[in-house]
Amino acid sequence: MTDRTAHDTVLAQLDAFNAHDLDAFVATYADDAVITGVAAEPIVGAAAIRAFYEPRLQNPELSCVIDSTVLFGDRWVVAREYVINAGVSTETIATFDVVAGRISRASMLKA
Predict the structure, then answer these.
(1) How far apart are CA 57 and CA 34, in angstroms?
(2) Distance CA 41, CA 20 (A)
(3) Which stretches does DSSP call E strand in the chain?
(4) Long-range residue pairs from 99-102, CB within 8 A, at least 24 positions apart, any chain
(5) Over the stretch 46-97, which tens digit does the pLDDT of each residue have?
(6) Taking phi first (over 0 means left), then psi (-120 to 50 degrees means alpha), and beta for anything else, what does residue 79 get?
(7) What is the tens place of the pLDDT at every residue in 19-52?
(8) Which pLDDT score is estimated for 2?
């Protein structure tokens, strides 16, 4: 458990993603977290998140920028993101449900 706010957790996840720091990235997610919208099937649990993102975070041309965020209550963050890979930017709307300083659910909707 952490005193980190939901918004701070999402920013920590973004920083770890952009630093290509797999351990720090996975640490922002709950052990039983679920991510949807980035693969054909939901990614469930820390081990699956690690396995999915490990090859992606080895790509030095991959990064993400958050254009804006909205906080709903004290645990939901909605972010407008741009995921950049090899100079190509994809607009994404991401929702994060943050409980006790860790992301429990994340859903991505790509434009």
Answers:
(1) 19
(2) 23
(3) 29-36, 43-44, 62-72, 76-85, 88-99, 102-110
(4) 99/30, 99/75, 100/1, 100/2, 100/30, 101/1, 101/2, 101/3, 101/4, 101/9, 102/2, 102/9, 102/27, 102/28, 102/29, 102/30, 102/33
(5) 999 999 999 999 999 999 999 999 999 999 999 999 999 999 999 999 999 9
(6) beta
(7) 999 999 999 999 999 999 999 999 999 999 999 9
(8) 62
